[in-house]
Structures are given as structure tokens and as C-alpha cells.
Description:
Elements: E1 2-4, E2 8-10, E3 19-21, E4 37-39, E5 42-44, E6 48-50, H1 59-68, E7 71-72, E8 74-75, H2 87-95, H3 102-108, H4 115-127, E9 133-136, H5 138-150, E10 155-159, H6 177-183, E11 188-193, H7 196-204, E12 209-212, H8 218-226, H9 232-250, E13 256-260, H10 266-274, E14 279-282, H11 284-287, E15 297-298, E16 314-315, H12 322-327, H13 339-349, H14 355-358, E17 363-365
Parallel strand pairs: 6-7, 6-14, 8-9, 9-10, 10-11, 11-12, 12-13, 13-14
Antiparallel strand pairs: 1-2, 3-17, 4-5, 15-16
Helix pairs in contact: 1-4, 4-5, 7-9, 10-13
Amino acid sequence: MYDIGRSKRAARAFSLDDIAIVPSRRTRGPEQVDLSWKIDAVQLDFPLVAAPMDSIMSPETAIQMGRLGGLGVLNLEGLWTRYEDPKPILEELADCSEPDSNARLQQVYSEPIKPELIRARMDQIREAGVPVAGSLSPQNTQEFAEHVVASQPDFFVIRGTTVSAEHVSDTAEPLNLKQFIHQIDTPVIVGGCANYLTALHLMRTGAAGVLVGFGGAAANASLNVLGIEVPMATAIADVAEARRDYMDESGGRYVQVIADGSIGRSGDISRAIACGADAVMVGTPLARATEAPGRGWHWGAEAWHESLPRGARVRFQPVGSLEEIIIGPSRTSDGTMNLVGALRRAMATTGYTDVKSFQRIEIVVH
Length: 366
């Protein structure tokens, strides 16, 4: 703990860039590494989840992510549920070179969400035979939940910049997460959260998974606009501790911890799992795919908030197809391609054969 003047004490916190993985006494061949990840009843080939952001996830890219072996989450408050055909809007945004485009984003996202499009988009993904997941913010969950549940997804993701199990409001009936989760049969993944106590409360709601972090590029913006941030390495480690304590408290119920934020390159995925994450939600790496709907531009829901935007539209240079970015082969040496191969190599180099055991790897602080 550090003294901040005479009246405040603060803990030291670490980002993923602050840490590194230490090799062990054993190495293995990559073919011995098992990256499979099971959450609820769904078995995936690797522990990567595509973030629900319009710049990277359309129904088509969600299907492709599923066929590759991961999980794509569609933003059910995005352009695909506001417009019958959002492609002209995506093309317009791609042609707009002005990075500070929050006002235009606010305009296009002012179109009301259409419940029938929620069903149509989810049905499209299901018909492809891949896992189906859709995301709503806590503010819109009660209004549109019945349409999401009726589409019978494999996962219902409730995702916000900061989500708590106990929201108090004088202007609207707050979402009771515990009651909501117990009323539906669909497994719920909820977050983000960034500390032990919040994570423990979210786990007690019955969630199948908890998102750790602020999602995408929202962390720096939240710091600049609101002054709120918890560096990811510390956040993941704290939530992993909450997972362990909740297992003892609940008699063995295991809640999946999914890192969601500050994941820019393949090394960040390895370090997030080394800190205790079961899986990683990726956004920025997929914005570099040639199939990405944003065509190199990347933005999240924070960028089009109607009254207080806390994110920006950011430009990335495409490096390859979605398949090449996820499972290779890579043509670069900067960690932007073959994310799965890099994680497999990191585990093989340090002697681990599965994700759960890799969470015990030794790390150091720079």
C-alpha cells in the first residue's frame, strides 16, 4: 500500500504491459497443448470470444468466428438491429477519414432498435450451425430480453463499461441481475467488472461467466473522462481470487473469468490467461481483418453514447483475413496474426498442456 498524502492509501496496480511470463523447467511440443474451452454446455476449440462491436462483428463474421472454433457475440443494440441493411452506413463511416466522428456515430445510432431484427440476426447465426451469442447493455436488458431469449441463444451477454450486481436509480426500475438470471434458462455472461468484491457479487447472481475490464478502447477513455481505471493484470488476478472464494462459498460452482480489455496482440492473450483468465474477449485484433465490417475503423458502444461519449473511432491497418488472424498462418512478427498459434506456442514453451494449468505459470513485473 502507498500513502497518498495524509488521508489516502492506495494499492499498486499492474497492466498487462507491466508483466511477463517466466519459462518453466519443462518445454513441450505444440501438438501436446489442448486449447479447448467449455463454458456451460458449449465446447469451443480455443478460449477466444469476439467482442460485440459493430466494427468487427456482423452476423457473417460471427458465423465465421464460430466455424473457426471460437465464439462470436453480436451487438444487439448495434447497427444490425437498427437497420434492415446497415452496409451503406458502414461504408459511409469507412470513407469518413475524420477520427473525431462521435457526432455522426450518435446520429446513426439514434435509430430505434427493432425487436424483429434481433430475432432475424440471431436466427441467421443459428441456421449456420454455430454457437449463438448476443449482447445487450444493462440499461436495455429488461426492454429487449424477451426477444433475445425467444431466439434461444447459447449465451446472453450483458455487457457494459462498468456493471454491478446492485444498481440504484431514482428514475428507472433497475435491473435485478440475480432475479433476471434465475428467471431465464439461457446462460448469462455479465460484465465488466474490475475488482474482487464486484466480481464476487456478480458471481452470486448465477452468471456463467464474468467479463473483467472495461472492454475494447474504453479503458483509456474512461480514465480521461471519468477518472476510472483498473489496470488489467491486477483486475484479472483479483477476479480470479473471487472465483476461487466463490467456489468454496457455493460448494464447487465454477464461474468462467473472461478478460475483456487491453488485448491488442497475441502476447496480451497469454498474459491475461497467466493472470487467471479462463478466456479472452478480443476486439482490436479482429479490427485488422479484411472482413471486418468497420473496414479498418474500430469503435465501441462508448463512442456513440448519446450524452457523454467515452471512446473514439480508431483506425487500424488490415493485416489479413479473419482466419489468418485467428488461426494463421501469420505473415507478421508483431503479434497481430495467428492468435491461437501464439497462445499454443506460449503454453508449449513453458511446459503446460491446458489453459487451466497455465493459469499457475510464474510471472514477473518489469
